[in-house]
């Protein structure tokens, strides 16, 4: 899979698409295997990005908290100890967990594994630091 259109077709087939634009797809990933997570969901933005005006990349991003509502040092310390994928960024007033992948020669597991890790990690961070299910 090396084309944005192929990735979007896969996403449409495999995930709950809630919004689609030419360079961005939003999906809702549900969680709920135990009493603490039952009914929770995470909205994930998958976007096509062009690096250096020549290379296509895929960015996976999901918000998990509003900046004023959490202690940034605590969040960054937790992420430093627990996450193996992604990074935390501030986008507007939100803390967002995101990860990027080159689209060229992308195998499907190179997309699905990070997608699940980013969404699941953001869900846990949201639950831990806000106690809510806003995103």
Walk me through this protein's architecture:
With 135 residues, the chain is α+β, with helices and mostly antiparallel strands. Helix content is 33%, strand content 37%. The chain contains three helices and six strands. Strands 1-2-3-4-6-5 form a six-stranded antiparallel sheet, with helices on one face. The chain is globular and about 40 Å long.
Largest sheet: 6 strands, antiparallel
Q: What is the 3D shape? A: globular
Proportion of residues in helical segments: 25-40%
Order of helical and strand elements: HEEEEHEEH
**N/C terminus separation:** 29 Å
The average pLDDT is 90
- Can you list the strand order of the major beta sheet? 1-2-3-4-6-5
Q: Topology, please?
A:
Layout: H1 4-14, E1 16-21, E2 24-30, E3 41-51, E4 55-66, H2 72-82, E5 87-91, E6 94-102, H3 108-129
Antiparallel strand pairs: 1-2, 2-3, 3-4, 4-6, 5-6
Summarize the entry for a quick read.
The protein has 135 residues and is of the alpha+beta class. The protein has helices at 4-14, 72-82, 108-129, and strands at 16-21, 24-30, 41-51, 55-66, 87-91, 94-102.
Any key phrases for this structure?
135 residues; 3 helices; alpha+beta; six-stranded antiparallel beta sheet; single chain
């Amino acid at each position: 899979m090396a084309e944005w259109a192929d990735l979007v077709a896969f996403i449409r087939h495999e995930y709950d698409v809630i919004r689609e634009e030419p360079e961005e797809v939003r999906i809702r990933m549900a969680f709920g295997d135990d009493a603490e997570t039952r009914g929770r969901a995470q909205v994930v933005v998958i976007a096509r990005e062009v690096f250096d005006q020549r290379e296509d990349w895929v960015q996976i991003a999901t918000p998990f908290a509003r900046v004023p509502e959490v202690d940034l040092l605590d969040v960054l310390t937790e992420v430093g100890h627990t996450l193996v994928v992604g990074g935390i960024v501030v986008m507007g007033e939100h803390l967002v967990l995101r990860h990027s992948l080159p689209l060229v020669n992308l195998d499907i597991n190179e997309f699905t594994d990070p997608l699940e890790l980013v969404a699941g990690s953001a869900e846990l961070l949201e639950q831990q630091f806000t106690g809510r299910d806003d995103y």
